[in-house]
Write a structure and sequence with these properties.
Elements (H helix, E strand, L loop, with lengths): L1 H26 L2 H8 L3 H8 L2 H22 L6 H18 L1 H12 L8 H17 L9 H17 L7 H18 L3 H9 L15 H5 L13
Length: about 230
């Protein structure tokens, strides 16, 4: 009996995530949720009580999936490589996970009532940029604060594009965008070597060519982040 109740509860939660993601808080219908979940309105109210409580549960699940995905990201020696992986994982979640899409929609519909997902991923992004700065991987003149602002907007844009089809063409566009961003952010490795060999001199740091993106940021995409659990 408890196992059946748990299955019903999960089915309602998944149906609610789909409904909130598609229609937002005001447009979401409890009747459509129970139809999606193949259950009754009585079962929904028994497990969750109100639409507000159900939205809170969906939001909590979205946050938990974000946190789990970020915790599973593999560390890389180069923080710029890790940044690429991070933003790619955020975009994947927004494309493939109904709970994350629902949480983002609820954030927009109910500002101040749903904790923003930026609380989960922005500190990670900021920490990686601090690492890149400390390792002299950022181009001279690029501050971590400016880079945070740029990459935060890039991440939000990648997540907002979740309505587009995720295919090889999408990935090719993403690679091109990242190459442009990297060109503006990354320090020239030849310049770094010149600085190391000629302390106190500029070496080749003034060059404007960024390192090859495939050299420093070519990573295997994470198939688990954003994938629906079995």
């Amino acid at each position: 009996m408890q196992e059946r109740a748990a299955r019903t509860r999960q089915a309602v939660l998944e149906a609610a995530a789909d409904e909130f993601a598609e229609r937002g808080y005001e447009g979401a219908s409890l009747q459509r949720m129970v139809w999606r979940a193949a259950t009754s309105i009585g079962s929904l109210t028994f497990h969750f009580g109100t639409k507000t409580a159900l939205a809170e549960e969906v939001g909590a699940a979205g946050h938990a999936r974000f946190e789990r995905c970020l915790a599973d990201l593999a560390a890389a020696p180069d923080p710029l490589r890790e940044l690429r992986t991070l933003i790619g994982a955020l975009a994947r979640l927004a494309h493939e996970d109904a709970f994350v899409r629902a949480t983002r929609r609820l954030e927009a519909d109910r500002p101040g009532e749903v904790p923003p997902l930026t609380e989960v991923w922005l500190p990670v992004l900021r920490g990686l940029l601090d690492r890149a700065h400390d390792a002299r991987r950022l181009r001279p003149g690029v501050s971590p604060e400016d880079a945070v602002a740029l990459l935060a907007h890039l991440a939000e844009g990648a997540m907002a594009a979740h309505g587009a089809t995720r295919d090889s063409a999408w990935d090719a566009v993403w690679d091109s965008v990242w190459n442009v961003v990297l060109h503006g952010l990354a320090a020239d490795r030849a310049g770094q070597e010149g600085q190391a060999d000629q302390a106190g001199q500029t070496g080749q740091a003034g060059r404007t060519d960024a390192p090859d993106a495939t050299e420093s940021t070519d990573v295997t995409d994470l198939t688990e982040c954003g994938a629906e659990p079995a």
